[in-house]
Amino acid sequence: MTVTLKFKGLQFYGPITALTFVSSNLLLAGRGSNLSIYDWNLAQVLKEVKLFKRNQIQGIVVGRSMILIWGASSFGFIGKNELLEEFTFCEYILPDWIMMGQWGYDGNAYVVTAHNVLLHISSDCKRVERISTCGIDCILYSAAVFSNADDVCVAAGTVFGTIEVWSSRNGAVISSLKGHEGSIFNVQFSKDGNRLVSCSDDRSIRIWDLHTNKCLAVGWGHSARIWQLKYLDDDTIITTGEDSTTRVWSFREGKLDCVQIWEGHSGRSIWSLAVTDDKNIVSTGGADGRIRLWNMAAKSSLIDRRKTIDFEDIARSIEIKCGSIKQYTATRTTAYAFSTIMGYVVLLDTVDNLWKKTYYNPVLAGYSLLKGWDDKPYVCVGDRQGFVYVIGTEDSSKCIVIDAPSENSNKVMDLIPLSKGDFLYILVQYGNGETPWSFITLKNHNGISLENSVALAAQPTFPIASACMHPNTDLLVVGSRFGALAVYRIEASQVPIAASGCWRRIISEDCITSVNANYTDDGSMDILVTSRNGSYSVCNVALSSENGPATLDKLHLNRLAKGSIEGAANLEEGLVFWGFRNNYFFVWNETLQYEIMSEICGGPHRNWHFKISSPTKFSFVYTKASSICIVKEVDAGTALSANSITQDGTHGREIRAISVSPLTNDRNALLVATGAEDTCIRLSNVFTDGRLRNLGVVRKHVSGLQELRWSPNGRYLFSSAAREELIVWRVTIRGQNVYLYPIASAPIATDLPDLRVMDFAVDETMCNGAQCYFIVAVYSDSAIKVWLFNASTTDFRLLSTGRYKTCCIFKAECYRSNDSFHFLIGSSDGHIVSWDLSEICHVALCSPVSELATKSDFPEPEWSLSVHQSSIKSLMIVRDPYTSADRSFFIVSGGDDNSIAVTKSTMIESSFLPTKEYTVADAHASTVTSLTQLKDNVVLSVAVDQRIRVWQLLPDSECKLSLLDETYTAVSDTGCVSTGTIKDNACTTLLICGAGLDVWQVNKK
Amino acid sequence: MGKCSKDKRDLYYRKAKEQGWRARSAFKLLQLDSEFHLFEGVSRVVDLCAAPGSWSQVLSRSLPEGTATIVSVDLQPIAPLPGVITLQADITHPATLTNILRLFGGEPADIVCSDGAPDVTGLHDLDEYIQGQLLLSALTLATNLLRPGGKFVAKIFRGRDVDLLYSQLSLLFEKVTCAKPRSSRASSLEAFIVCEGYKPRRGWLPESLTLARMKLPLYLESTSAGSMDRERAIAPFIACGDLSDFDADATYQIEKGVGSISLEPVQKPTAPPYKTALEKKRNGTLR
């Protein structure tokens, strides 16, 4: 029985190590050994082609008619006009690493090796015309070439922190620039060759004068190493680095200042940087596999359009004594309204830039609250006697005063304007917390008129902070400053209307800054709730009957890791949040994971207002030092602004866990969870063509992920990390959305921050009608804990604790055979140890709840076998394909010792014993980090040597592995692998993770 | 080796401080020695990329006083160690070889070791290449210094091209082993190459190791698929250190009260190149 399989590499999501623009619309990117060609205007990939056999593409430079591409020791050429045609590519190999390539003024190509050797390659790309050296042959981390009719010069950035500029004419060193500390990671000549800019391990940028050999300026700003730099013009430099930022620097009056910071990559390093010839578009490529475009023109014009207005000038221009500003709001799409301490409402129309005194009422002096409808020509004001004024901003004569609910009402504590169709609503809360709230309905049709005002029973200790109306029903959702949520039926008949439900601590006790309700198919609503503590949640609220109480179910919880969240908008382009971090304000696209804008405004303690209708249409107004600042982006209307992500990627750090869900949100794709050293869990879809769609990034763990597993029914996801974190997530699939809510964490027993839950085995079972899970977790201190997790009560019950030795346990697996339950570990001492845990599980299922505290003793192992010399890094159980009963299993393990071992565990009488053992000592050249089963008797191994090997498990009598096939992956530092089959597809999708994600297709030949 | 929260976490780190080692890497050499008996009958030793000096410490403590000459070389200064001659020098510089030979009175070395590694960038291909170059420099010097039958021990990264390295080394030594001490974490790509029985072929020149990279082509010819698959070999793997030794990946519960006491570092850390950037960050002058 021979098996033949066919492998096809579909997509590689890993470090983008090279980027360059060609002609007006093409962007070339190096992704592993593949070249991807994009139309960046359309954000479309036009072509993908594998150029190098093994090496990664690390540089691309465009000449007059040819393109030079290199990586590691490989290089080659492509005709500029051939890019989109069929072309043959010759891979040339040098005996040394290539540090950089460049085209000369004469059309020749220049290549500099890592040992400071310059190769002059003829313009026909066929001959090496000359080889130049300068006598310094230490390792370089960077190089640049400047050429003109006189000379070809090399600037060599050495590992010792000096930059050696030398002439290829005579090999003489012209300048030896000293100043940096640590390796020089990049160096570039200015256009005229008179200056040099460099960056290094010391995190600084230096500009050098090549005539005087003096350092002209030093720029500080990056918080980690700087990898790339480029001149935008003679005095503007752009850099990217390990701190995941792209920065623009201005060299003025002998000073080098960071003038812009862009954030839009995940993880750490941004490896590549390209700029269009007209310098308008910048592209960056990161370790996250993402390619971003940045519109320089739009960024600059945003800065140019920033307005700062001194309020005294306004007061003078409209001839009032208005006093200082109290509050802002937006009204219509072009105007802002301001309330002042003296009782004025002033309007700024940004179309004609005119200030208008809109309303004045001495009653409002000293105390007033102003709010507005972003897109309606009205604002509302509450006063100290409980009156509410609705003021027309286009026609100030259109003003309605709504009486306070009673004569001795308290002041208006807060008011929230809402709207739906032709109606405007105002929710009002009064100073005395017990006074019922008012819900005012206004009709906005041919002018504004009061429809009614109804009383809502106030919730105790519930200062209102946010509210929304459900788009299809009469439900009103209100969020409080203390983290509670209440729901009212506005059309209910009783007076005052009682809340249908009120829930405390939805996320935390921090302010609920916004609520957004969405209709769902079953008539309930999904509410997006944001908290000032930087987290957001999706809750489902359902009303059982007409007047019955509402129930609330938490579907999703996530943290932004940016700062506070002050508001949210669900736009076509993604879910957008805004808030403050330290001294700046940010706007963040959570769906696509990038920052839309940020403004150093001084922090949250000021009056401010933000509104957004698209990522290119927003405005932010705030007070800073008694001036009004307005930052506004108007829709540029270009394709680019909407498509700022040319290529999306994945985690920017090493992926350490992957698991394919048994369920999916899209029948054409797999639903995949990945966990990485960035501490995040990512959910994504993988399509049959290898395309990846990111569904969301979930942040809760505080250290890098160790393991992820879905429950067999797909309704729960389990994740583990350091600090003994073992979290159970409830999975809700709503159309294309997949929500995760952390319903429980395993109790923590120590305060050791390094105590990692290395792995865990999960077994699904039923207990008293409830869905339950046996979770056997293994820890880095050699502990083994058997948990029973009840999914309906979310209770974690510790059944038993064992300890292997004192070494770290890396892997855990379990299997059932008839009625018995067996558990295996792979440990750092190279042993596989097996336990029969049937008794513990049996006792747990039979014992009544009252005996929850009783713990079983951890049994002695069934068997223990030394199979590897050192750590076991991968472990897998394969049901014996050559026998039918559950009486024989193959345990396949991969070690740090390069070997793969097969141990056969067979039922003899009533217990399992290892009956045969076989080891392939040099299965790989390095640590075997992952194993997966492709077919009954076919397993696949992946190692740090970046090789994928396929093995056949030979029948019982031999218990051997025979190598069927092998291939090479572009993923380095491999760590985990998984497979899945997309509905109706005959092929298996293979996912290999490490420093990136490699998607393969496997099918029978 | 500074003073930080790592104290409570890594047992080898803590033990290194308790036993007066300048770095936890001392245990790696001790465990390599327990497996390979590296120091038996040794009288001339060279420690390359030696700073901060923990391997030299192991050498001076393991070799009986007065029986051996130990020379430690690094670009960085190494604080003085009893029984160790320290040289601040570049291992690729020809003068370094002459200096070492002079210190040995013209006699060849019995063992050359190197625990050197570059600051990794995270671009694994590049890191592995740079580490390979560092090893090649150490090996070039070693082949100039070693007596026939001598030993060479160095740190390697077991990445995608480690098998090329094995095949190169096996041309120079009778026995090449890839060893992983228990004090080196399984999660790290690091391992040590232990080369025993130096036996260069007749007419072989140490320069040929570095000359290979200078064999640049004059005509660009597409390399055939066959010649690209240069010779690869897998060195036998040996885990060293006793199973009862501490496990570098494991978490240990330190006795109550002990863990909270922070030990003074044996040797203050050398100044990192980014110390100015750190100061600026601390002063709040960076955003």
SSE layout:
The complex is a heterodimer of chains A (1005) and B (287).
Chain A (H helix, E strand, L loop, with lengths): L4 E9 L2 E7 L3 E6 L2 E6 L4 E7 L8 E4 L3 E6 L2 E6 L12 E2 L4 E6 L5 E5 L4 E4 L6 E5 L7 E8 L4 E7 L4 E5 L5 E5 L6 E6 L5 E6 L3 E6 L4 E7 L5 E8 L2 E6 L3 E8 L2 E9 L6 E6 L5 E6 L4 E5 H9 L2 E4 H7 L7 E7 L3 E6 L3 E6 L4 E7 L8 E4 L5 E5 L5 E5 L6 E4 L9 E9 L2 E8 L6 E8 L3 E9 L7 E6 L5 E6 L4 E5 L11 E3 L8 E8 L5 E7 L3 E9 L6 E10 L7 E5 L2 E8 L2 E6 L4 E7 L7 E7 L2 E8 L2 E7 L5 H4 L2 E3 L7 E6 L8 E8 L3 E8 L4 E8 L5 E6 L5 E6 L4 E9 L2 E9 L11 E11 L2 E10 L3 E8 L4 E9 L5 E9 L2 E8 L3 E6 L1 H9 L16 E4 L5 E8 L8 E8 L4 E9 ...
Antiparallel strand pairs in A: 1-84, 2-3, 3-4, 4-5, 6-7, 7-8, 8-9, 10-11, 11-12, 12-13, 14-15, 15-16, 16-17, 18-19, 19-20, 20-21, 22-23, 23-24, 24-25, 26-27, 27-28, 28-57, 29-56, 30-31, 31-32, 32-33, 34-35, 35-36, 36-37, 38-39, 39-40, 40-41, 42-43, 43-44, 44-45, 46-47, 47-48, 48-49, 50-51, 51-52, ...
Chain B lengths: L10 H8 L7 H11 L7 E5 L5 H9 L6 E6 L9 E5 L5 H10 L5 E6 L9 H22 E12 L4 H8 L3 E9 L8 E9 L9 H4 L13 H4 L8 E4 L34 H8 L5
Parallel strand pairs in B: 1-2, 1-4, 2-3, 4-5, 6-8
Antiparallel strand pairs in B: 5-7, 6-7
Helix pairs in contact in B: 2-3
Describe the protein:
The complex is a heterodimer of chains A (1005) and B (287). Chain A has 1005 residues and is mainly β. Among the domains of chain A are: 326-456, 7 Propeller (Methylamine Dehydrogenase, Chain H); 866-963, no CATH class. In chain A, strands 1-84-83-82 form a 4-stranded antiparallel sheet, with no helix packed on it. Chain A has a 4-stranded antiparallel sheet with strand order 2-3-4-5, with no helix packed on it. The longest helix of chain A is centred in the first third of the chain and has 9 residues, at 296-304. Chain A is flat. The two termini of chain A are 14 Å apart. The mean pLDDT of chain A is 91. With 287 residues, chain B is of the alpha/beta class. Chain B has one domain: Vaccinia Virus protein VP39 (Rossmann fold), CATH 3.40.50.150. Chain B is built from 9 helices and 8 strands. Chain B has an 8-stranded mixed sheet with strand order 3-2-1-4-5-7-6-8, with helices on both faces. In chain B, helix 5 links the parallel strand 4 (109-114) and strand 5. Chain B is globular, with a radius of gyration of 20 Å. The chains are: A mainly beta (1005), B alpha/beta (287). Chains A and B meet through strand 9 of A and helix 5, helix 6, strand 8 and helix 9 of B.
